[in-house]
Amino acid sequence: MLLDLTTTSLVEWSRWQFAMTAIYHYMFVPLTLGLALMLAIMETMWVKTGDQSWLNATKFWMKLFGINFAIGVATGLILEFQFGTNWSNYSWFVGDIFGAPLAIEGIIAFFLESTFVAVMFFGWNKVGKRFHLVSTWMVFVGANISALWILVANAWMQNPVGMEFNPLTARNEMDNFWAILFSPTAISKFTHTVTSAYTLSACFVVGVSSWFILKKRNLEFARKSIMLASVFGLISIILTIYTGDSSAQDVTKTQPMKFAAMEGLNEGGHGASFTVIGLPVSDPSLPTDKMKKMEYAIHIPKMLSFLGYHDFNAYIPGIQNILDGYTSQAGVTYPSLEQRMANGRTAIEALKTYKQAVKDGDQTVADSTLQVFKTNYSDFGYGYLSSPYDAIPHVPLVFYSFRIMVGLGMLFVLLFILSLWYAKKRKFEKFKLIPYLALVCVPLAYVASQCGWIVAEVGRQPWVVQDLMPTNVAVTKIASNWVITTFWMFAVLFTILLIAELKIMFTQIKKGPEQLKMEN
């Protein structure tokens, strides 16, 4: 559902406030993750070779890293506070699971990162070269550990494992930490997100360096930066494609509705075709307007089955199959969503009866209703849906976001190959299309990054916790006017921060590396 600025719906405004904060925050995170690693590599080259140009490059890119890092921290803190202010029911329901990774992230990763950031920025000529180098590497490690724990928490929302629901407190309690940390969803989400962040960082470095090429300034600095970033980016985008394949297989098994929405697939089957491109349009013959008919589509036969299971004849359910009930490729039979809604309502009523029986001291009723609850708990969240069609995400948005992400990924492969050849051959007076392409790819990398998160987060709607808690139940029951007010406050604040960051970034880029002091 797209934002209606006239609505007073608490749920919709809460969703959009969180989405806006997450979008702004994730403008800064990928560059931090990847640029931290490239900084560590550049400084390592300087320490090993003594080549002053590597120190010059390190200090230049470090300044841009620092600007981005500071604003990323500010937006990230606001994002975490919203779990308590806007999503208190969610926080209560999953606090024992979701809180643990975030606490570890804060205690270990954030303090590790922030401590060594101070040494990295202010330690020139105050600590030894090798200790400074270690500090730079530790900033990279801290940033990526931070991403790990946040993505582990997010992965649990996509595929809740390793927990036991406590019916007395109505909270999920962790009973297997390692199942949460090493779930296939957590592994695929972390590896795919991080490698895609590295790809964005490489596009950024290649693009900014290409600007120097076009301006005929700092050509050797730009050439070295392009060569490093092109190799780094080429490795990163190959790993991103590989981890994306693993992620698609995981989504097929754990979130079939998301996978169907990514494809705009209404009727699935064995040997399902992949839609390269198409136009999702409304069709009165479909049972709901949330389902779309695919017009002008170009298909690759059996490719969707291969993407989902690495089997050209595997069964892939479509949206209608999921609504009606189906048997998965693994042989698991899932009832219709109408039945799952009935199961969910049974679980909700059993939970109420159980708590009342415990309060009244009626152990017989408590034991029987607890068993009913446990039997139906896997469908608990469906009991809060008004219609089976509520379980369908926004198909066109997910469909197009996925294809934009994949299409731009292919463009980045071409960019890194061309830019590496360009830098090695030093043909700066010729082939000016390559640096222009690199400049265009900087904003496109951010577009691809945001599209990835749209697929992941919009694709799993209406769930905040897959199958267990829909969004409309997770929200804090406060006046919607408060959420509307803070939405616009944050929108203005984040926009100002983004404009300020861009202005500072552009100023530092225009100064160039020759303006930096060479203290070491």
Would you spell out the secondary-structure blueprint of this structure?
Layout: H1 10-25, H2 29-49, H3 52-85, H4 88-122, H5 129-158, E1 163-166, E2 171-174, H6 177-181, H7 184-215, H8 219-254, H9 256-263, E3 269-270, E4 274-281, E5 293-300, H10 303-309, E6 315-316, H11 319-324, E7 326-327, E8 333-334, H12 337-360, H13 363-376, H14 395-425, H15 433-458, E9 463-465, E10 469-470, H16 471-474, H17 480-511
Helix pairs in contact: 1-3, 1-17, 2-3, 2-5, 2-7, 3-4, 3-17, 4-5, 5-7, 7-8, 7-15, 8-9, 8-14, 9-14, 12-13, 14-15
Q: If you had to describe this structure to a student in words, what would you say it looks like?
A:
This protein has a two-stranded antiparallel ribbon with strand order 1-2. It has helices at residues 10-25, 29-49, 52-85, 88-122, 129-158, 177-181, 184-215, 219-254, 256-263, 303-309, 319-324, 337-360, 363-376, 395-425, 433-458, 471-474, 480-511, and strands spanning 163-166, 171-174, 269-270, 274-281, 293-300, 315-316, 326-327, 333-334, 463-465, 469-470. With 520 residues, the chain is mainly alpha-helical. Helices cover 69% and strands 7% of the residues.
Termini separation: 55 Å
Average predicted local confidence, pLDDT: 90
**What fraction strand?**
5-15%
Strand order of the largest sheet: 1-2
Shape: globular
Counted by DSSP, the helix tally is 17
Order of helices and strands: HHHHHEEHHHHEEEHEHEEHHHHEEHH
Major β-sheet profile: 2 strands, antiparallel
Task: Work out the number of β strands.
Answer: 10
- Given helix and strand content, the structural type is mainly alpha
Instruction: Extract low-pLDDT stretches.
Output: 1-7, 515-520
Helix content: 55-70%
Give the C-alpha Rg: 25 Å
